[in-house]
Design goal:
- By secondary structure, the protein is of the alpha+beta class.
- It has a domain at 59-107.
- 41% of the residues lie in helices and 16% in strands.
- The chain has helices spanning 10-21, 72-95, 109-124, and strands spanning 27-30, 40-44, 49-54, 99-104.
- α1 (10-21) crosses α3 (109-124).
- The chain is globular, with a radius of gyration of 15 Å.
Length: 128
């Protein structure tokens, strides 16, 4: 598992490419709120939108997530812990005035980028 990339994964790069194609500019792998030690994969500072690209296995995707049979208790605790941390991150960001957008690794990058674009434009006041 140590060989798994934690940044610049295929879906992240594809999503960023689509966001750029849509004319959006962003920061990569930044902490939206400095007091919180969690990085977002894509950050739109002025709009206060943080995008997280979640892996189906690591974040327990309801559609594609699996529960390993070997060392099952450890992995269930690990994945449930990741889910709890994700929920806490979303809550902390919301309290600080940020919007957290979650993208699953199985999502189409173009569709996800479109969803992110709408959120950013809405936060900027560009969409009703």
């Amino acid at each position: 598992m140590s060989k798994q990339r934690s940044r610049d994964t295929g879906i992240e790069v594809a999503l960023r490419r689509e966001l750029h194609r849509l004319g959006l500019r962003y920061r990569v792998h930044r902490r939206p709120v400095r007091a919180v030690r969690r990085e977002a994969d894509v950050v739109f500072g002025p709009a206060r939108v943080a995008v997280f690209v979640d892996g189906c296995f690591w974040h327990g995707c309801p559609e594609h997530g699996t529960w390993p049979k070997r060392n099952g208790e450890f992995w269930r605790a690990k994945i449930e812990g990741n889910r709890a941390r994700d929920a806490n991150t979303d809550q902390v960001l919301a309290e600080a005035g940020w919007l957290a957008v979650r993208v699953w690794e199985h999502e189409d990058p173009a569709a996800a980028a479109s969803r992110v674009r709408e959120a950013v434009l809405r936060r900027r006041g560009g969409l009703a």
